[in-house]
Amino acid sequence: MTETYSLTLRQAAAANVAVEPVAGLGLLLTLRPVNVANSTAMGNAEEIVLALGALWIGPPGPKGDQGDPGINGAGYQHTQAVASAMWTVNHNLGFFPATTVYSTGGVEVEAEVLNASVNQVLIYFVAPYAGTARCI
Question: 108 is in which domain, residue-wise?
Fold first, then answer.
């Protein structure tokens, strides 16, 4: 079913607006420019058609299956017991991990992390630190 509305646009332009529900897609909105003086459609004027699928939000779907555990179920935690301004982390994960560094108190610490190879990360600090590095 199509419903027709009138829409007045800025700068004295006008358009007929057709709103049509489309199963599974939402709404289809068509703007047809019209002559303001006599309200007739403007000959070869270009129509603007918009699909407005985001207007109808249904209930959430069923929960999906659990995803894969990642590359080899990988993850590695390095403990640096002796404070140092450079840590060498040999994780042997076989890929370039994302690495987060924590102080001995468990607070995330800023550091320069360099993936030296698919099996080694080098971590540089402005001052010596002890703590842990988590590679995932």
Answer: 74-135
